[in-house]
Structures are given as structure tokens and as C-alpha cells.
């Protein structure tokens, strides 16, 4: 059997009992190492599991699935994913390839940022479409995710923004020259994502577009959700662009229509509690 096992969001001990039993008895154990990170590294996992863990990078998962599936018809193979196995579309593709190869699979779920984001106090059933905010480059500043945020705002829904991760990425020059030289890992911070959104708002206003949210819109920054040192900060988009939430991973939420209870909860995490004094109910446009 080929097992896709969610690890949760905190440390090595967040794996489920069912998942741990599979890991301890599997022929090989892989750790998917590019869509997210765990606060504990590979060595801590190996210490807790009492066995070797093989790092599976993007190339292996997307282009060498035959190696992942090797002997899965005779032995159990474990594929570990931070959060929940279906938190990234990559893993749906892996399941499709397993079925096409005649490999039986089973999924063992766990918590992901998609449900753990509720720790900030915003109600999960009032979240809209999730968006990803990517790193900008000097010559490439995409902003298509703004339209999805705007759509959520117009419907009064909160928007969870997943922030970019760059692991085992090549520079354009090294890619063109075929050199297997990789850039240091990079993880987008909340303040960087908020700053990009503020720049997008300025651009939209200069184009005469009626913006769906403003620098005064209430937002929430989250870092290391599920870990002992998780941090949650709420405030305006402008305030979060100036706030340091420390080490990765970070996520950003743009609040939609808020119930008074949600506002009371966010006030507990406020950069400046007086920011919330004017709200009894609030919408995206502040």
C-alpha cells in the first residue's frame, strides 16, 4: 500500500496514532519537502520515528513517481506531508498517477492551515476562496490574486492568503545554463505580503478601479500555527505591513464581514486595540 500521511502543523508528535503505526512498519518513509515545512526538521522526525526518513523534493515527486511507488505492491510505503495530504494540488496529481500505475493507496488525514486558521477567531464557514501570494521580482509583479480577494470581499467572506515558499529553486541564469545550483530557501512574511497588497491597491486606484478593500481593512497575520510558539496579530493592512511575526511559516487573512464575536476575538490579538473600538460590525472596505 502507498500511504499519504498528514503530519499536522506543529512538531513530530502531531502525527496521528494511525499514521505513526504505518511509519514504524513501512518499507520506506518519504518526507515531502517543498510545499511546506515543519518546525521540527528531518532529524527530529527520524529520532521520534526511530528510522530513516528520505527527503522527497519537487523533482522526485513530480517526475520520479516510479521510485516512490517502487515495491508498493508488496510493501507499505509512507509519504509524509506537512499539514494534510490534500493541502496541495501536487498530491492529488500523485494519487492520480498511483491509480494509473495500479498502485493501491490510502490517505491518513491531519490538521492543515485550512482549518487551523480558525484559531484567530474568524469563523471557518465564512471563509471564501483561498489565494496564494507569490514573491515579486523586479520584472514580474503578478496581481491576479487581487480579483479573488475582491470577489470574497464583495460577498463579505474572509480570505486566507497562503504565502510563497521557495525551496530548491534555481536562478534564471543557472536554469538556462543547466547548472544544478540552488538558491537558499525563502519564506514570505506577512509584512511582505501586506506591502505587496498595498502596492496593488495603489495601482488599482491609479487605474480608476474601485477597490474592494483598503489599507484600513482589518487583517490577521499568523505564524507557526500549531507550534508552541505560534503568533497571531490583528490590525489594519497598513499595520500588518509594519509588523514582524518572526520565523516562518506565515499566513495572512483579509477579513470580510465580521460578527461582533469575531471582532471581540480579534481585539485580543490586536497590534493596537483601539483600532477595533469603532467596529461593532465591519466589512472589507475599512
From TrEMBL:
Record keywords: Methyltransferase, S-adenosyl-L-methionine, Transferase
Pfam families per record: TP_methylase (PF00590)
Domain Tetrapyrrole methylase: residue ranges: 1-240
Gene3D superfamilies assigned: Cobalt-precorrin-4 Transmethylase, Domain 1, Methyltransferase, Cobalt-precorrin-4 Transmethylase, Domain 2
E.C. designation(s): 2.1.1.314
A molecular-function term among this protein's GO annotations: diphthine methyl ester synthase activity
Pathway listed: Protein modification; peptidyl-diphthamide biosynthesis
Cited CDD domains: DHP5_DphB (cd11647)
Chain sites annotated for binding S-adenosyl-L-methionine: 9, 84, 87, 112-113, 163, 225, 250
One GO-annotated biological process of the protein: methylation
Top enzyme class: transferase
InterPro entries hit by this protein: 4pyrrol_Mease (IPR000878), 4pyrrol_Methylase_sf (IPR035996), 4pyrrole_Mease_sub1 (IPR014777), 4pyrrole_Mease_sub2 (IPR014776), Dphthn_synthase (IPR004551)
Enzymatic reactions: 2-[(3S)-amino-3-carboxypropyl]-L-histidyl-[translation elongation factor 2] + 4 S-adenosyl-L-methionine = diphthine methyl ester-[translation elongation factor 2] + 4 S-adenosyl-L-homocysteine + 3 H(+)
Function text: S-adenosyl-L-methionine-dependent methyltransferase that catalyzes four methylations of the modified target histidine residue in translation elongation factor 2 (EF-2), to form an intermediate called diphthine methyl ester. The four successive methylation reactions represent the second step of diphthamide biosynthesis.
Family: Belongs to the diphthine synthase family.
This protein's name: diphthine methyl ester synthase
Organism: Stichopus japonicus
Amino acid at each position: 500500500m502507498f500511504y499519504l500521511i498528514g503530519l499536522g502543523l506543529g512538531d513530530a508528535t502531531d502525527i496521528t496514532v494511525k499514521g505513526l503505526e504505518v511509519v514504524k512498519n513501512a518499507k520506506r518513509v518519504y518526507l515531502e519537502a517543498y510545499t511546506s515545512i515543519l518546525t521540527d526538521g528531518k532529524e527530529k522526525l527520524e529520532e521520534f520515528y526511530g528510522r530513516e526518513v528520505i527527503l522527497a523534493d519537487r523533482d522526485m515527486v513530480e517526475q520520479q513517481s516510479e521510485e516512490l511507488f517502487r515495491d508498493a505492491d508488496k510493501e507499505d510505503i509512507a509519504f509524509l506531508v506537512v499539514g494534510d495530504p490534500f493541502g496541495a494540488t501536487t498530491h492529488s496529481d500523485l494519487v492520480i498517477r498511483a491509480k494509473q500505475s495500479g498502485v493501491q493507496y490510502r490517505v491518513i488525514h491531519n490538521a492543515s492551515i485550512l482549518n487551523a486558521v480558525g484559531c484567530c477567531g474568524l469563523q471557518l464557514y465564512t471563509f471564501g476562496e483561498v489565494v496564494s501570494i507569490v514573491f515579486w521580482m523586479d520584472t514580474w509583479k503578478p496581481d491576479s490574486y487581487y480579483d479573488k480577494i475582491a470577489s470574497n470581499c464583495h460577498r463579505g467572506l474572509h480570505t486566507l492568503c497562503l504565502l510563497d515558499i521557495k525551496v530548491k529553486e534555481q536562478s534564471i541564469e543557472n536554469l538556462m545554463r543547466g547548472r544544478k545550483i540552488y538558491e537558499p530557501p525563502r519564506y514570505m512574511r506577512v509584512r511582505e505580503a501586506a506591502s505587496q497588497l498595498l502596492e496593488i491597491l495603489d495601482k488599482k486606484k491609479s487605474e480608476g478601479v474601485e477597490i474592494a478593500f483598503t489599507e484600513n481593512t482589518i487583517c490577521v497575520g499568523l505564524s507557526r500555527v500549531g507550534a508552541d510558539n505560534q503568533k497571531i496579530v490583528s490590525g489594519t493592512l497598513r499595520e500588518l505591513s509594519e509588523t514582524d511575526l518572526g520565523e516562518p511559516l506565515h499566513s495572512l487573512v483579509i477579513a470580510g464581514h465580521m460578527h461582533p464575536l469575531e471582532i471581540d476575538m480579534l481585539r485580543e490579538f490586536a497590534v493596537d486595540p483601539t483600532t477595533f473600538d469603532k467596529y461593532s460590525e465591519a466589512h472589507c472596505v475599512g
